[in-house]
UniProtKB/TrEMBL annotation, chain A:
It is found in: Cell membrane. Keywords: Cell membrane, Membrane, Transmembrane, Transmembrane helix, Transport. Residues 107-326 form the ABC transmembrane type-1 domain. InterPro entries: MetI-like, MetI-like_sf. The chain crosses the membrane at residues 12-33, 109-130, 142-163, 200-221, 257-283, 303-329. It is a multi-pass membrane protein. Signal peptide: none annotated. This is ABC transporter permease. It holds the Pfam family BPD_transp_1. Belongs to the binding-protein-dependent transport system permease family. CDD domains: TM_PBP2.
Automatic annotation (TrEMBL), chain B:
It is a multi-pass membrane protein. CDD domains: TM_PBP2 (cd06261). It is found in: Cell membrane. Belongs to the binding-protein-dependent transport system permease family. The keyword Membrane applies. Residues 106-296 form the ABC transmembrane type-1 domain. The chain crosses the membrane at residues 45-66, 110-133, 145-164, 170-189, 224-254, 274-299. Keywords: Cell membrane, Membrane, Transmembrane, Transmembrane helix, Transport. This is ABC transporter permease. It comes from Intrasporangium calvum. Residues 1-26 are annotated as: Disordered. Residues 17-26 have a biased composition (Low complexity).
TrEMBL record, chain C:
GO terms for molecular function: ATP binding. It comes from Intrasporangium calvum. It is found in: Cell membrane. Gene3D superfamilies: P-loop containing nucleotide triphosphate hydrolases (3.40.50.300). This is ABC transporter ATP-binding protein.
Length: 336, 308, 348
């Protein structure tokens, strides 16, 4: 087990470096292809060369390699790495704020919404998948199959918009018109966006929307896994041992079925971070997703790069932990 | 696991290489496809989905067949009028005929999806083939590269790319999808090649002196094509959805381009007063994505040798 | 192995009092099992009969699809029902019909009184639990013993089946054992609660020949030590000759010949048995063509009328091709054959 962990950690390090380099290369390439993003900040006004130079230097964009298309800009990469190690992600092009400040302010909201989404996805997804798998071919199974296909097919922003308009706006307006209805529900849970008065309740629906697609995937995966394992030989042996059906399902089958599901949940973190961009935009949650989307629209490259770098790091760490968790759960992996 | 192209959409476990039963030279795989074709034709879901896709494709290719209205002929006083004679989808916020917008909107969505799918199959397929076939250093490097690309959540990666490349048109969006999507194909291809490599008849061909290229093309590739085809079909659907999502966030296509994504984004707040403005493009979009995914699922079941 | 008094609940005591210890350990009477398939009802077992005596080793011999595994699983009560259905018959354990027992009692019979081992030990053992856990489970759940005591028992069991370093191995996972060792673990698991009857479903088919001999040897030894009765399901006539006392030859879900081992090998009374014996490759007949049984086993949804073997039989006459099925003629004391022309078969 120890060797397995060490091996995974050793694979982790070059992957992190590689990801950082990929981001760096993509962004450098983009700049090389379409010019200094600082230029765009001035809109229609033409800046003087001195202004351009000063601003470019401040934002670390004045390296000559950025004018040569295809140049991987290793030197610049090295500088960036050093900065990141010191927790310096640069400065926002538009607001002149430190990117780390921006992220720090926005991150808690995203964590909240991601947590809600994750709990929702894990709980309901696994439950639905287990029940569907046990009663394979039954009504519940059919229902789960159809509903999950639909959820996966509907783009998350459509889902979000429809739910926002229907539930939060239309239904919510009705409830808000009634003075007797408890406010926590009409103004909290059914709020059409983030409300500081109800920091958790108003994020409830956005969290559900965020977790919806992952829930569908988890449910399907759990169901498939259960169906496979219910037919397995070791289940037959467990029956021959005279064990109670509840134990056979709850201990033997479930333990094996959940292995792929748990590891998939771990990887879902990345999916949630991506989905947060859309969900936060729709529901006006001041999290890093919305910041990223806004910055992308205004062309504020350093903020976007900063957020994506952070997200990629989180994702890689989560992956590493999931790999280790996998070995804990499945003894066959430990001794590879 | 890329969130861009969902692979766990089928209730059957992941498709093994179609050659696990030793299909025997290309003759065996040919019968796999003809058997699959027979099964698919009898599958009502597949047939309906394919018909839907054909309809949408004809909208994209021959919009003139479907509408004689000019989507740019907008009269502001008609803004948000409900469906009426000659204008089955009513009018949008600028007073343009919504139906023709929907028809013309099919083209950019489908072109991006098809272009991106071709791209990921070519790039991902080649890299996966090389990684699986040669193994060793080649495999290690390519797999590491795959891991690196996969650590970027799709939407965030797209945001980065589209932010620094400030041009937003069909080409750049297609490029983004290819850059972020090739990894799933590469993985699947690599897995299929790895299983095909150890088949008896491949070893036999090698012992008869067949060169690497010949083995790759004639023996391994036909077997690996099946799971790649399934994934490509599903990818088509995911890309349509992805383009719409990017457009919604403001980094995809922009007006005056028409696409379903733009239609949905521009009219989301009118849902309550003029619901058709949202319903029509949404239905078209969901229908297209759903059809591709269902077709992919049906293909997967039809090509799975374990179901024989 | 030390015997601890099992925890006796009132319902256990009641169940045990039903048993008639003078009756044979197992008697199967006219068992019929059907499977519901998309192409019709598959008749997997069509009138299976045999008696297992105390301390006897009975082999059930037949090709794939003859119904031998289904019979075993029916006895254990672990058939998947649907699609399987026991449509007729009795399975008498010490005089008590298992098919009429409550679910709880039926469950109690498993592992405590009748145990089973399977062909592929790797897939039959749960990959995520240690061997000690899976062995100890029997003691924790059936005897109410503590974790520690169960683990000690597990180590004892591993010793009994001659697995070296039992104390360390008890914490290992199934995939860390070799094929032969894994099969021993399964045997240990089956014998843990000292059942009276052990059903072994193709226990050595997946093993190398040398390992086969070891495992079969272990099985015989343990059977003698614990005074168990053994049902050995196999298609390998060589294994049968070494180990079995009597044989039930199955074809298309029925017993076609039932005889003591020596008699059957010397003078088979059923064409199918005879053909099976003739098809065994023999070193002293080197150079001659291998004898095969022409034709294929019947499709279970469409069993030929009359004698199911008639399309492949060289002794078949007209009356073999029409119903009813040939009855079990008495060939000798303790010997029956379901063939109208058994005399001809014996003499040729």
């Amino acid at each position: 087990m120890g060797r397995y962990v060490i091996r995974r950690v050793l694979q982790f390090i070059p992957t992190v470096l590689g990801t950082m380099f990929l981001l760096h290369y993509l962004t450098s390439l983009g700049i090389q292809l379409t010019g200094n993003p600082v230029r765009a900040l001035f809109g229609d006004r033409t800046p003087t060369p001195a202004m351009m130079a000063a601003l470019s230097e401040r934002l670390n964009l004045n390296d000559p390699c950025l004018t040569q298309t295809g140049n991987p800009c290793i030197g610049l990469f090295g500088e960036r790495l050093v900065n990141i190690a010191q927790w310096d992600f640069g400065i926002s092009l538009t607001g002149q704020r430190e990117v780390t400040d921006i992220i720090g302010a926005a991150l808690p909201y995203t964590i909240r919404i991601a947590l809600i989404g994750f709990v929702f996805e894990a709980f309901v997804g696994i439950l639905a998948g287990v029940l569907a798998g046990l009663r394979s071919g039954g009504f519940l199974d059919y229902f789960v199959k159809i509903s999950t296909t639909l959820i996966i097919a509907v783009p998350i922003f459509v889902l979000g918009i429809v739910i926002r308009e229907f539930v939060a706006v239309k239904f919510g307006n009705q409830l808000r018109a009634d003075p007797n209805f408890p406010e926590i529900i009409s103004r909290g849970f059914l709020a059409a966006g983030y409300k500081p008065d109800y920091p958790w309740a108003s994020l409830f629906i956005p969290g559900l929307v965020l977790g919806a697609t992952s829930l569908a995937v988890t449910a399907r995966l759990t169901r498939t896994s259960m169906v496979e394992n219910v037919r397995a030989d070791y289940v037959r042996t467990a029956r021959a041992k005279g064990l109670m059906p509840r134990r056979i399902t709850g201990v033997h089958t479930l333990r094996n079925s959940l292995i792929p599901v748990v590891t998939s949940l771990g990887v879902d973190l990345g999916v949630l971070m991506g989905g947060a961009v859309v969900t936060e935009t729709i529901f006006n949650v001041p999290g890093i997703g919305r910041v990223a989307a806004q910055s992308a629209r205004t062309g504020d490259a350093s903020v976007v790069i900063g957020i994506v770098t952070l997200a990629a790091l989180i994702f890689l760490v989560a992956n590493l932990l999931v790999d280790i968790l996998y070995a804990v759960l499945d003894p066959r992996i430990r001794y590879e | 696991m890329s969130d861009l192209i969902p692979s766990a959409t089928s209730d059957e476990p992941a498709l093994q290489s179609s050659s696990s039963e030793g299909a025997g030279a290309t003759g065996g795989t040919a019968s796999l496809w003809s058997d699959a074709r027979k099964q698919l034709i009898r599958n009502p879901i597949f047939v309906i989905s394919s018909l839907y896709i054909l309809v949408v494709s004809s909208m994209a290719l021959f919009p003139g067949l479907w509408t004689d209205q000019d989507p740019r002929n907008c009269i502001i006083s008609q803004s948000r009028k409900p469906p009426q004679d000659g204008h089955p989808f009513g009018f949008n916020i600028l007073g343009c005929d919504y139906y023709s917008h929907a028809i013309y909107g099919a083209q950019p969505s489908l072109s991006i999806a098809i272009g991106a799918t071709v791209g990921i199959v070519l790039i991902g397929g080649t890299l996966g083939l090389l990684a699986g076939f040669y193994g060793g250093w080649v495999d290690t490097i390519i797999s590491r590269v795959v891991d690196i690309f996969l650590s970027l959540p799709f939407l965030l990666g797209a945001l980065v790319f589209l932010t620094v490349v400030k041009v937003q048109n069909i080409l750049t969006i297609t490029m983004v999808l290819v850059i972020l999507g090739w990894t799933t194909i590469a993985r699947v291809m690599r897995g299929a090649v790895l299983s095909a490599k150890n088949l008896d008849y491949v070893l036999a061909a090698r012992s008869l002196g067949a060169g690497n290229l010949r083995i790759m093309l004639r023996h391994i590739l036909p077997n690996a094509i099946a799971p790649v085809t399934v994934l490509a079909t599903i990818a088509l659907g995911s890309f349509v959805a992805a383009e719409a999502t990017l457009t919604f966030l403001g980094v995809g296509l922009q007006p005056p381009e028409e696409s379903w994504g733009i239609m949905i984004t521009d009219h989301q707040v009118y849902f309550l007063e003029a619901p058709w403005l949202l319903i029509f493009p949404t239905t078209l979009l969901i229908g297209t994505v759903l059809s591709f995914i269902l077709m992919g699922d049906a293909l997967r079941d039809a090509l799975d040798p374990k179901m024989r | 192995m030390t015997t601890e008094a099992p925890v006796k609940s009132p319902s256990t005591a009641r169940f045990l009092s039903q048993l008639d210890m003078t009756a044979p350990p197992l008697e199967v009477r006219n068992l019929h099992v059907e499977f519901h398939t998309t192409s019709g009802e598959a008749h997997a077992v069509n009138g299976m009969n045999f008696v297992l005596s105390q301390g006897e080793t009975r082999a059930i011999l037949g090709e794939s699809g003859s119904g031998k595994s289904v019979t075993a699983q029916a006895i254990m009560g672990i058939l998947d029902s649907p699609p399987a259905k026991i449509t007729h018959g009795e399975i008498l354990y010490r005089g008590v019909d298992l098919l009429k027992l409550s679910d709880e009692d039926r469950r109690r019979v498993r592992a405590n009184h009748i145990a089973m081992i399977f062909q592929d030990a790797l897939s039959a053992l749960n990959p995520v639990f240690t061997v000690g856990f899976q062995l100890g489970e029997l003691f924790r759940k059936h005897r109410g013993m503590s974790r520690q005591a169960s683990k000690a028992k597990a180590i004892e069991l591993l010793d009994m089946v001659k697995i070296p370093a039992a104390k360390q191995r008890v914490n290992d996972f199934p995939h860390q054992f070799s094929g032969g060792m894994r099969q021993r673990v399964m045997i240990a698991m089956a014998l843990a609660l000292e059942p009276e009857i052990l059903i072994a479903d193709e226990p050595t088919t997946a093993l190398d020949v040398t390992v086969q001999a070891q495992v079969m040897g272990l099985l015989s030894e343990l059977q003698r030590e614990h005074n168990m009765s053994l049902i050995l399901i196999t298609h390998d006539m060589g294994v049968v000759a070494d180990v079995a006392d009597s044989i039930s030859v199955m074809y298309a879900g029925r017993v076609v010949e039932d005889a003591p081992v020596a008699d059957i090998y010397a003078r088979p009374a059923h064409p199918y048995t005879k053909a099976l014996l003739e098809s065994i490759p023999r070193v002293d007949l080197k150079g001659q063509e291998l004898a095969v049984i022409k034709g294929l086993p019947p499709v279970l949804t469409n069993i030929p009328p009359g004698c199911a073997f008639h399309p492949r039989c060289r002794y078949a006459k007209d009356n073999c091709k029409v119903p009813p099925e040939p009855p079990h003629y008495d060939v000798d004391v303790n010997r029956v054959a379901a063939c109208h022309y058994w005399r001809e078969v014996i003499e040729s």
